[in-house]
Amino acid sequence: MTLPVNPPVKPMLAKAVDGIPERDDLLFEPKWDGFRCIVFRDGNEIVLGSRNERPLTRYFPEMLEPLRRQLPERCVLDGELIVATGEGDALRLDFEALQQRIHPAERRVNLLATRTPASFVAFDVLAVGDQDLRTRSFAERRRQLEAIMARAEHPLHLTPATTDTAVAAHWFSVFEGAGLDGLIAKPLGDSYQENKRAQLKIKHVRSADVVVAGFRWHKDGQGVGSLLLGLFDNNGTLHHVGVAASFSAKRRTELVVELEPLAEGALAGHPWRSWAEAEGHEDGRMPGAPNRWSASKDHSWVPLRTERVVEVKYGSTLNGRFREVTSLLRWRPDKTPDECRFDQLDEPVPASLALVLQAAETSSGN
Fold this sequence. Notes:
This protein is of the alpha+beta class. The chain folds into 2 domains: 13-203, DNA ligase/mRNA capping enzyme (D-amino Acid Aminotransferase, Chain A, domain 1, 2-Layer Sandwich); 206-344, CATH 2.40.50.140. It has 8 helices and 18 strands. It has helices at residues 64-70, 95-99, 106-115, 138-149, 165-174, 249-263, 273-276, 353-362; strands at residues 13-16, 26-30, 35-42, 45-50, 74-85, 92-93, 118-128, 131-132, 156-158, 183-187, 197-202, 206-217, 224-232, 238-244, 302-314, 317-318, 321-322, 327-331. The strands form 4 sheets. Strands 3, 4, 5, 6, 7, 8 and 9 form a 7-stranded mixed sheet that branches. It has a 5-stranded antiparallel sheet with strand order 14-13-12-15-18. The protein is elongated, with a radius of gyration of 23 Å. The two termini are 33 Å apart. 37% of the residues are buried.
């Protein structure tokens, strides 16, 4: 490629903040739940680069022709690859379907490209023609991006943007129901700062009381790496819903002492005993095979008697599981395990993704 900005490029990042900042120098955009992607076009040559500089091009063959047809002859755009499923009012982002697109078999890739085709949502431009725009202000880059995307049509989209905090607050509340993940706030005067957390992200933060049903050792073998969490359904079945992790070294050691008494005799009456006995088994709904009080297997887990409750902080759920790793807030000795049920989870009101895409037509980056 002979672009002024060639791959690899490390995209700009964002740091988390609480609440929507009351500042007049920010542009707010929805936070998409997809794969970060930088598109490089030089004539017929298209390269899709991921956030971690891994090639995405081969996994999304259906995107190549629309990008050639709709983008300038030579350009570099920053955005997100998404997959949406459903129709009409039931149209939602589908991150699980997107994850399935990363497959080693070309035949499978081509099949999924037809069954669950992707779209590209643009939210920045790094270069056009011979111009490297990374040193320009975001306000200027946004104006150029709007001009580029003015005639774009599906599967290419321009992300909505606004400087109005009231509008941003409405998006934050409503768009989650379509599968989006909060807001990104971008300083209008900033240049494009690769691999730096120069932007702000505002995500939904919630808490839930969950049963601690086991744990995994930390990768260094020194302490607890993660807690395995469960919630009861209406039939009294305990489901594995995610993990709590990111403990300090000191806290990992403390947790070993706190949890050790719960390991004695835990497997005998454990609700996940059948999974535990499936040696080496691991899928999205099962915590994996157990191991003795050691750290010899990465995916093994230590069953615990389901007697303790913790409160965890989470952002969102996906198909009955926490979407991301949760944070441990505190033990809840005042709670009993049978109080830890799915009905306590805060679920967003469903909304159509069409509302989000339509907002790009009426919103302004000025």
